[in-house]
C-alpha cells in the first residue's frame, strides 16, 4: 500500500481502534464492549449508543473478555459486509468460555439489512438493533441479557435523536455532531438509502445544543456529519445558515463538515465558507467518475463539466482551499474511455488527497439488482492502480507545497510512538511537532520543514 494515498479503508469506513476506557468509567454495573465498523456516522452512533447505555448504568470495557454484552456496530458499505459480521462475531464467541452468559448483539446498517436472517445464521447473536432504534437501546440490551431474542430494525422517518447525548471515545479536541440522518439521493451503487432510510435534518436548536455541550467539555473543533451534509435543511434553515449559527458558539474555533453532495454545493455555501474564518478551507467532494456516461449510470446528478465548474468557483472564492475526493473504478459498464475520462478529470482538478476504490456488488442496491458487474477483476485492479499512481503525484505536490509555510496547527494528541505531538492544519493536513510544542487542544503556529507520506513535519514558529 502506498504511503501517499488512502486506498482503503476510507476515512469514513475505517475500523475503530481498540477503545480506551475513559478514566471516569463507573466501577460497577453491567459491562458492554462495543466495536465500530464503518464511517464517521457510525462512530457518532457508537457514541450515542454508549451514552444511552451509560445512562442505563452500563460501563464500557476495552476488552471483549471483560464484557457482559458485546456489540458490533456494523457497516453495509464495506465489501463483504455480511461475512465480516459473521466472521467477527464468531471470533468473539471464544470469550463465552470464560463467561458463558456473554451475549452478542449487532447494531447499525447491517442490522437493518440482515434482520431476522442473522439470528438464524448466527444463533449466538440475540440482539439486532437498526440505526433508528438507539433511543430504546438500554431497554433492548437489558432484555437481551435476560435471555430474550430481540430484532428491532424498523426505520423511522422522523428519528433524529434530539436531546440525547453521546459519549465519544475521541481525542477531546475534535468532536462530532450529526446534523442529518439518511439519504434520498439513491446513487445506484449505494446502500445507504436502504439501510439508513430517508433524509432528515436535525433541528438547528439540537445541533447548537450538542455543539455547545462539546465546547463546554473543552472541544474546540466540531465536525458536522451527514451523508449529504450540505443538502441539510430544516424548515427554512439551510446548511449555510446553520454554519453561521454554529460559528457563533463560544469556544468552537474550527468547523468542518463531511460529506457534501456536489449538486447541493450552493453559491450561498461557497460565500459562507469564504466569509467565516471558523469554517476550515477543506472540502471532501466526491467525484466518483470523470465520465459523464458513468456519472449518469451511477445517478450522481451532475456532469463532469458541472463538477469542474463547481471546483473552479470554490477555488476562486475560498482562499487556500484543499480538496479531497472519492474515486470509484470498475463500476458496471465502465469502458477504457470512461476510465481515461476519470484520469483526465483528476489531472484537471489535482485533488490534495483521494480515497480510491474498486466497485463491488453490495447486494441490495439498484446496481446489484439491475446492472451487470461486468468489469473483470484484473481490469479493476489495473485501473485502480493507475488512479492511485496519478493521485500520488498530486498528494506529494500538495504536501511539498507547504514546506517553508507557517501553519496554524490544532494539537490533538501524542503520536503512537510517543515521540511527537500530532495536530492538523485548517486544510486537514497532519503535522508532527516536537513533544514540547504544547498540549492537546492548543492552537500553535508551526513552520513546516519537511514532509513524509501523509504527514508534514514542523517546528514552532514563535514562542507561545
Ligand atoms: S449521495 Fe449517493 S453515495 Fe452518498 S449516501 Fe446518498 S446514495 Fe449514497
What is shown here, in short?
This protein is of the alpha/beta class and 464 residues long.
Question: Can you describe what's shown?
Answer:
There is one protein chain. By secondary structure, the chain is α/β, with parallel strands linked by helices. The protein has three domains: 136 residues, Methylthiotransferase, N-terminal domain (Rossmann fold, 3-Layer(aba) Sandwich), CATH 3.40.50; 227 residues, Alpha-Beta Horseshoe (pyruvate-formate lyase- activating enzyme), CATH 3.80.30; 55 residues, Beta Barrel (OB fold (Dihydrolipoamide Acetyltransferase, E2P)). The protein contains 14 helices and 21 strands. The strands form six sheets. A six-stranded parallel β-sheet has the order 2-1-3-4-5-6, sandwiched between helices. Strands 17-18-19-21-20 form a five-stranded mixed beta barrel. Strand 15, helix 12 and strand 16 form a beta-alpha-beta unit. The chain is globular and about 60 Å long. The N terminus is likely disordered. The structure holds iron/sulfur cluster.
